[in-house]
Amino acid sequence: MRFHTESLRDTYDAIVVGSGVGGLTTAGLLARAGRSVLVVERHDRVGGYAHAFRRGRYHFDSAVHLIGGCEPVAFKGGGQIHNLLTKLGVRDQVEFNRIDPVYSAVYPGMVVEAPGHLDDFVELYANEFPSEAKGLREFFQECLNIRDETRRADQLEGVLDAIKSPGRYPTLMRYRRATLAQVLDDHIESAELRAVICTLWPYLGLPPSRVSFLYFATMLMSYLADGAYYCRGTFQKFAEALASAVTGAGGEVLLRSSVRRISVDDSRVTGVILENGQRISAPLVVSNADMRQTVEELVGADAFPNRYVSRMRRLKPSVSAYVTYLATDLPLSKQNTSHETFLYASLDHEAAYRTALAGQPNWLSVTVPTIADPALAPAGEHLMIITTLIPFGAHDWRAGSQWMVDGMIDHVARHFPGLRDHISFAEGASPRTMERYTRNRDGALYGWEVSSAQVGPGRSPNVSPIAGLHFAGHWTQPGAGIYGVVSSGIQTARAILAQRANE
Ligand SMILES: Cc1cc2nc3c(=O)[nH]c(=O)nc-3n(C[C@H](O)[C@H](O)[C@H](O)COP(=O)(O)OP(=O)(O)OC[C@H]3O[C@@H](n4cnc5c(N)ncnc54)[C@H](O)[C@@H]3O)c2cc1C
Fold first, then answer.
1. Residue 69 CB less than 6 A away from ligand 1
2. 371: which of 34, 58, 169, 402 lies 20 to 30 Å off by Cα?
3. What structural domains does the chain harbor?
4. What is the pLDDT of residues 87-131, one digit of tens each?
């Protein structure tokens, strides 16, 4: 692949700031449509939060564990990642392993599993909770309706189409302000079953009482209905496939190059200035970087209408996380370990979230990617990626955080006896590390919080008031996670190409 640190030309049709999955999606689609595209990335590799790193013979994903929609599905519009890679001509560069069960969870007195096919999931829990069977089926039917309507909207103009034609999207309209807890209240009584259904809430960084039902349902269906997948060789391979779609279509990717400034003249974008002083012109700039960095530092808030800036400052950013990366020679296998296991101290996810906000999370998740891809570690060894949510401001991370690594290992060792004596590598990443590697301020995991008020039209649009300045990634519509940022990247490319076609 052709990666540079200085651009070969002085002028492009479009410059993309940041090589997160959202930015690469837009860049790939624009390059494939014949536009000259430059991607500028400050890190030494592409991917943003989807990047991976190596320690000796261990290959760790920095963040992403699981994505949905990697194979063709009969449902029209399904298999979003498969469709994107196919369209970009790079589908053969990545291999995905299906994850089944999608997750396991340990609650006091209860161990549960989420089968990787929706019908199996519903049947399993309808049998275990017979009095809840009707409500359970109705709940998942609503989730499927949301998936269908979201995909239909995605194929048109996404959120914009849903706003313009509300009658075509009755389920999206009905639940547009609903939280997961509110919808569960209408369908499920059992605290155990509610806890099982909500198990994945940390994936969106908010507990059931706050997380958008629309977004949670879309995420859950992407795993249970479209299939959950791990990318063989880490998600770095997925990001690299997207980057090679850019370079394969004649575009360029600069690494170790920071954008210092996005130049604006008379309310119109004119290009970027790199940290090394190089000025590059383009009539289009797509920012995949933290929205606050883009508005306040790269462009300057003065260039935007006051209302736009104050609205942005009222939005709430998502929480951060602490991750411990570990290698062990414990004899783990598909028979005794899942790809992803959540260890909860109670059925009460609200209480779990409160402990995280207080900086003392009493729960965590353990991902063992070597179950799906043993080649990530030497034979006989496994990787464990232990994650919990925690705010940036909870502790002074500059003072070190070995105590966090130790605490997380102790917690996991209660469920994996002997772990302490079988660790060959351990390293922690704090919210500060997340910020350092992606420049998401305070290590925000998912851009703006994925609350019911901040998805759909409540999230920042992909276009900006400055002509030629667009956004792609988890700070913009429709939302966070790989599914969300791919949708966002597609919407941004589509808007740009439609606009150019009309000019
Ligand atoms: C711990 C953790 C676990 C997660 N697990 C999952 C999961 O299992 N499944 C899932 O779907 N999602 C998961 N997510 C969420 C998902 O990773 C993100 O929502 C998504 O990757 C964000 O992509 P993005 O396109 O918005 O860009 P980002 O990943 O935020 O990347 C932005 C890029 O812009 C670059 N940049 C910033 N400023 C500049 C500048 N001035 N000049 C040049 N470059 C710049 C950064 O270096 C970075 O590469 C997880 C996130 C975290 C943190």
1. no
2. 402
3. 3-96+232-315+459-502 (3.50.50.60), 114-229 (1.10.405), 317-438 (3.30.519)
4. 999 999 999 999 999 999 999 999 999 999 999 999 999 999 999
